[in-house]
Amino acid sequence: MEEYFKFKENGTDFKTEVIAGITTFLSGAYIVVVNPSIISNTGMPFSGVLTATVIVSAFSSIMMGVYANNPILLAPGMGLNAFFTFYIVNATGIRWETALGAVFWSGIVFLLLSVFNIRSYILKAIPGQIRYAIAAGIGLFISMIGFINAEFIVANKATIIGFGGINSITLTFAAGLFFTSILVVRRIKGALILGMAFTTFLSVPVGRIWGDATQFFGSPSLVSWKGFFALPDFSLFLKMDLIGSMKFAMWPVIFAFLFTDMFDSISTFIGIAEAGDLLDEDGEPKNIRQSLIVDSISTVISGIFGTSPGTSYIESAAGVEQGGRTGLTAVVAGLLFLPLILFSPLLSMIPSIATAPAMVVVGVFMMRPVMKINWYSLDDAIPSFLALILIPATYSITQGIIWGFLSWTVIKALTGKKSEVSPMLIAIDIFAIASLII
Length: 438
Known about the structure:
mainly alpha; two-stranded antiparallel sheet; about 65% helix; about 5% strand
């Protein structure tokens, strides 16, 4: 094991790697509850999505450790799950089976780009400023969904959206958010999981002692006992519609999944590599090609088992901070996901109001790249701002990406900076315009 994972070469040992793996798992395990709670809004069964989430998280993380020897956790991505649910399925009316097919094909394309190293050409075409803006915009998007799930933000005819008012539900959410935030600030391991447990406990009286849970959530109470153990639910396995998802109208969806997944992964690799000095002799993240191949396979199996695209998690940095430097960290984290596949009844009792604080805090994490945007250069700032603000404002990651690209191209081309617009970016712009027309 020492030779395979190269402990001495990476300045680590077995004990350190195991502790780092546990830390990484605790930092990212919230996805096992949050992902099914989001995607079940499409009509897909909570237990089926939970099973898919566990399998994708476990298999992908173990593969990352064994094949790429990187201490990086993979799981269905935040932001991608919201895009899958609230825009692709709920807003456009696309069947979830077709959306799963789009996930599968985006993974296949990502895999081909990684194997043949074509991704490097695409990477060079995408302005770094736009990448930062999209990452931050997705963070705002996730946080907004958290506030909406908690009825803290509601529809308002006069102002489009507004504050939901002071009631038992918003007060419960606020208490959960403050509690979770304090744990995160104090760097308590498993802070998001503990925050969900605390908010679930506070939610028990809602609908029983005070508050009208039915008015907001359609059920007499927010928390109800559903059991402890259950066999895994494989009802979503191979339910993807591969033919329907290949129609021309679905190409923009596949592109959006591909783009977001690929650049989220690359940003994660770069961030973790810098934090843990996991760089090769050229100063690039080590084993980047193998890591991207694993990431793409994670997306492929996500479509097969029934969830949104799998991607690399920035929460992996928690394990790196604990000394994790090799793939054993990812293997340990992946193995720890497996027992959760039997707890779908217990985990399904956690209401959306309890996952909302975690979503808001995750949004905070994802806002960090906004500091890298050059706000003093308006030809950079305006396209970046459009990408950032339009993602939550239009409830669509795709719209943020499209208008970020188009505005960058137009502004740069007409202000004497044509050199910053590559032929590849123009090709992407043409595809973006075609998606708008469709």
